[in-house]
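Task card 7
Instruction: Convert sequence to structure tokens.
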Amino acid sequence: MIIVRLSGGLGNQLFQYAVGRRLALIHQTELLLDCEYYRSTPTSDTQRDYELWRYPISARVTAGMESLWCRLHGGKITGRLGVNWGGWRLFRERIFDFDNAVLEVGNKTYLSGYWQSNLYFEDIAQIIRSELTPIVLPAEKDSKLMSQMLKTNSVSVHFRRGDYVTQKITATKHGSCSLQYYKTALAKMSSLVCDPHFFVFSDDMEWVKQNMAFPGETTFVDHNDSKAAFQDLRLMSKCKNHVIANSSFSWWGAWLNVSKEKHVISPATWFADRRLTPTLMPEFWIRI
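Output:
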């Protein structure tokens, strides 16, 4: 059995699920999801909801004594690696980089971290992509947009603001991508893609409309609310090319696009404190 501690929004949950799924496959065992974080989110964190129920994942949420065990022990991990509590191995992420040791842990492992690198699950990419197709069919408006995306040289552009600019602690850690980043990225994308059609996604669309000009036909995708974020993620993945924010949400929007011809532009600086993220982006993504 493998247990993964979930935390954060949808993008983070997808990374955490993917590494757990890979380990469960290696050991031919069951994957459990510890959702205790969502029952007692720290006051310094943005309140989120568990969202993986929207997908046909191969895992189940802990229940009963399993949840009690996670509540008592999972949140007390202080070292990277240790054997405690009935033979369970507790593995905590210590660096924001791919760590091959994660894929070498044994059965009965509890994982706590973010695991933001495709290297943890690239060899099962087809499985992950198939399991991250929402159970709910696209709404009529989404279906029409998807048709447009297929017919044009579509480019998803994501602006992540929200708590990145409104909450001091989050803003200090993450920061938001500058307008200059987007201007440079859009110019670069326009040089790579003939007659691009930009599909814009944001949690602060009014700010985008007031502050950003796009060098081509533009569609603002603003009809899905925060409860339907998974619908926007699916829409992003149907675009042919991507300009992402420093956000795991748009990272997944680009990665879920199966095309080998896609262009993906991402920010070179992912965190406001400028910590290095050498394995966060797949090799062929363009960092600006």
